[in-house]
Write a structure and sequence with these properties.
alpha+beta; single chain; 2 domains; 44% helix; 5 strands; OB fold (Dihydrolipoamide Acetyltransferase, E2P); 3 helices
């Protein structure tokens, strides 16, 4: 069997393994194997093929992989929906207890209850939204 065929088989095996791991390391090693297959097809001897594979692997893992991982693991820039309301201030429209109440959050009126069930928060107070449970805001008074 020709050497370049072995390098192609190795590249395919590494590529398939990358699909299951998603680490970007095995895919880069597969790309190095493809590059080495091209050098083997040109007729370079095995020691030079191993050198090409080693250099391409090291370059991929040291240079390309960190860049790829930065792009893969980008943090979510903004929160949307009810998650965006958590941490926002709210105005108490009707007295809040551990069971019921109403608040106005960014112009919208929400049902609310106290995060600490022993608290009673009077009308007109300012509270912070701690959590959203369904259509009810769990709030805690500002100090």
């Amino acid at each position: 069997m020709d050497e370049w065929v072995i390098w192609i088989i190795l590249a395919v095996v590494l590529g398939v393994a990358e699909i299951f791991t998603l680490t970007a390391a095995l895919g880069l090693l597969g790309a190095a194997a493809l590059l080495t297959a091209a050098t083997a097809a040109l007729g370079l001897p095995i020691p030079l093929q191993l050198l090409v594979f080693s250099l391409a692997s090291v370059a991929g893992l040291i240079v390309v992989r960190p860049i790829a991982m930065r792009h893969i693991r980008q943090p979510q820039l903004r929160r949307f929906g009810v998650e965006a309301l958590i941490g926002k201030p709210a105005y108490v429209v009707s007295e809040i207890t551990g069971r019921e109440g109403r608040v106005r959050i960014e112009g919208e009126e929400w049902s609310a209850r106290a995060y600490d069930e022993t608290l009673v928060i009077p009308t007109g107070a300012t509270v912070d939204v701690i959590e959203i449970e369904g259509a009810t805001a769990l709030v805690y008074p500002r100090e």
